[in-house]
Write a structure and sequence with these properties.
124 residues; 3-stranded antiparallel sheet; 34% strand; rod-shaped; secreted; disulfide bond
Length: 124
């Protein structure tokens, strides 16, 4: 039983780690509306914060600013594990538990090395 618990724990940690990495990836945007290159870096940082990066486009002499922003894409889908799927908690039970634990969560039973894990997909 201890080996089963250890395996479930390691698989759960791997899934959680992967979902956290998916959540922390930054999205960048470009602002081309800052005008001529004079004082480009100061204007870029004043408008978009100290982590923004300015660049002067030599072709047209215009300032471009790259900064971290919210993605315009729909919500990302993350994966998390809750527990084992069993006779007392089959697919419908797993789906219900995921809906309770995660916003827009959906659950399913997935085989991992001979064990049936209840995994959840949810918006993150």
């Amino acid at each position: 039983m201890e080996r089963t618990t250890s395996l479930v724990f390691l698989v759960s940690l791997l899934i959680i780690f992967a979902s956290v990495l998916n959540q922390i990836r930054a999205h960048t945007c470009d602002d081309n509306s800052l005008g001529p290159c004079k004082n480009c870096d100061e204007r870029c940082k004043a408008k978009h914060g100290p982590l923004s990066v300015s660049k002067c486009n030599g072709g047209d002499g215009m300032c471009m600013c790259t900064y971290e922003c919210a993605p315009l894409l729909p919500d990302k889908v993350c994966v998390g594990a809750i527990d084992m799927c069993t006779d007392t908690c089959p697919l419908s039970c797993c789906d219900r538990l995921c809906a309770i634990k995660y916003k827009n969560g959906r659950g399913g039973c997935v085989d991992y090395v001979g064990y049936r894990m209840c995994t959840c997909e949810y918006s993150c």
